[in-house]
Amino acid sequence: MLADHQLLRIPGPSPIPPSVQRAMVQPMIGHRGQEAKQLIQTIRPKLKPIFGTDQDVVVITGSGTAGLETAVVNTVKAGDEVLVIVTGSFGDRFAKICESYQIRVRRLDVEWGNALDPNQVKVLLEENPTIKAVFATFCETSTGVLNPIQALSEMVHQSSDALLVVDGVSCIGGVDTKMDEWGIDILVTGSQKAFMLPAGLTFVAASERAWNVIENNEQSRFYLDLKKYRDNLIKDSTPFTPALSLLFGLEQVLQLFEAEGLSNVYKRHQTMMEMTRAAANALKLPLLTSDVAASPTVTAIRPADFQAEDLRKVLKQEFALSVAGGQQHLKGEIFRIGHMGYCAPADILQIVAILEIALKRIGKNVPLGSGTAAAQEVYLKKEAY
Amino acid sequence: MLADHQLLRIPGPSPIPPSVQRAMVQPMIGHRGQEAKQLIQTIRPKLKPIFGTDQDVVVITGSGTAGLETAVVNTVKAGDEVLVIVTGSFGDRFAKICESYQIRVRRLDVEWGNALDPNQVKVLLEENPTIKAVFATFCETSTGVLNPIQALSEMVHQSSDALLVVDGVSCIGGVDTKMDEWGIDILVTGSQKAFMLPAGLTFVAASERAWNVIENNEQSRFYLDLKKYRDNLIKDSTPFTPALSLLFGLEQVLQLFEAEGLSNVYKRHQTMMEMTRAAANALKLPLLTSDVAASPTVTAIRPADFQAEDLRKVLKQEFALSVAGGQQHLKGEIFRIGHMGYCAPADILQIVAILEIALKRIGKNVPLGSGTAAAQEVYLKKEAY
């Protein structure tokens, strides 16, 4: 096999564009100097449209999980009651974080692969008026579900005073998001998915309502204290030494978003999702999620008549193509294709054509080219952009 | 379109593997120090099997054309008579180099797209016993022809004392080559094709017979004097400051060749050629060359019922896929797909699937997926390696 050839199509980390790689190897700078200040000045306004907010988006050096924990410790405290909607392993993580802070968690467990139902949330909130915050996952990476956050937000605000905290790690930057218009109170994402960067940065924005809560929240926190980040960001600075090379990369990512146009970025992700799903249907590979619940950034397939791990092994060994397996109880049951960030429709064609060969290799009698043709047909129906 | 996304599938320069890119940004070293000596020591033995020779392969900092000129000025001189076999624009270049040194050129012009016929060469050599050297092109980049160098070599040595000088720029490293066994006297290649490097290095090896001629050849030359390179190489050195970052990259390329195994490298190129040709046939795209004359590194297609340039425009604008056009009288008549170096069968699947869409875009009624299926079938018949 061609050495040093890798096709990374897991739902994050995602591949890094070459110009972003180059940006990240710029000579190091001091984090308190004029260069760092200018870097943050450039980045700061450009993050807002991606979140769909007029609020500042703070940048914290940490994994996505640090962003989720930031959302928790800044908005609620030990003893508070919260509702955590669990549609997969990342909803579960929100619950675990809350529990480790002795926050009382009411879980709404949704079958993995399904989207949350806002009406169920409404009932729970009306029954439990003491709930201070609702935690939800926008794109559930473990299942490829895109939850209906706009509808959820309307329902939460209609039926309670709770804050709505949203984990957008695996979709922000790939899915049109209107934080302010929809009424999301805290929105979190990470750098290693649709943001086309290595892991190491997490992004958090808060609504005015949320800031009022944050100001007064008594939960102890130091590194993850949002106020520190906000107060420094106003001065184009950071409270702690940031991962500067990732900020160099972020500056370039934001230029790439501008060059393509955010609306085109979102259309591209939508097209890639539709191509992947059409190919799966043509190849009779059962999709884990319904069309309406599907995320533009990741697609999960639950094979009915072969082992997902057998297929993954062929993809990796013969084509150096990495797709993800399942998590927790879906381990071995599904495989997940990431189509986010630095990924083009041309890459979906490649993944699908490889998939067809790999299915043959494991003994499936698929018509060669049929998945590819289905993906091509989807593409051709779209306006070229 | 996804910004900063390029699919470079011209017949060189070819894409650079990431580990080679990383190798090339190592800190600069002095060219007369111990590090440079060690670098050359590592590289030197590993070049020989790629050429199929026990002779040293000298590395000259220059384009492939500098390598061709090296071959000329070291073996013949003004007034000498040579035979140049012209099967395309790079054969033509050999003739131009010779003519600029007042070497008397007898051209054997072969219709572009066809391979040379050793029997024709035999006749010419027997009629012209004063011919000192025969210049031939192994892979003619401009047409995708792989000339029968082994058969040519036998014929040249049977029918004359002329040296056989071979331009292997666009195939050495992608095609099994046995310089010593076949009796090639001078073999030249460049860094930017199957060697997976940027342009800037050219490689030249000479047979013992050739070295005897080189020692005594009276043609003036300084930078391109092979003796200088050989005499320095014996001491793990170079006569002039070499392109050290390219040598860093070369060291890594040779490691990648070792990791894959040279025989696997050649099999991969053969597979990619067959996949490309099968797809072209399935899509009713006329191949410029016959199966027997086809090169494993580049495939030329001569469309019968559409403009090659219209297709190239769609490939580039909509998919950032670069394929080459035609040269000289084939300009606008053909397009050429490079499948050499850092290119895997998975990339051929991608190129073909894109091609199908582009053909639709320019109004051709091709069955979607049919070219892909043909390429997949070729792949599946091969042993996995």
Structure description:
- The structure is a homodimer of 385-residue chains.
- With 385 residues, the first copy, chain A, is of the alpha/beta class.
- Chain A folds into two domains: 7-14 and 262-381, Alpha-Beta Complex (Aspartate Aminotransferase, domain 1); 18-258, Aspartate Aminotransferase, domain 2, CATH 3.40.640.
- In chain A, helix 1 (18-24) runs antiparallel to helix 10 (244-260) and helix 13 runs antiparallel to helix 14 (370-381).
- The first copy, chain A, is globular, with a radius of gyration of 21 Å.
- The first copy, chain A, has helices spanning 18-24, 34-51, 64-75, 89-100, 118-127, 149-159, 179-182, 208-216, 226-233, 244-260, 262-282, 308-319, 345-361, 370-381; strands spanning 7-8, 57-61, 81-86, 104-109, 131-137, 139-140, 145-146, 163-167, 186-190, 201-206, 298-301, 321-322, 324-325, 335-338.
- In chain A, helix 7 (179-182) links the parallel strand 8 and strand 9.
- Chain A has a seven-stranded mixed beta sheet, sandwiched between helices.
- The first copy, chain A, is built from 14 helices and 14 strands.
- The mean pLDDT of chain A is 97.
- The interface between A and B is large, with 51 and 51 residues.
- Chains A, B: This is Alanine--glyoxylate aminotransferase family protein.
- Chains A, B: Residues 24-328 form the Aminotransferase class V domain.
- Chains A, B: Substrate binds at residue 336.
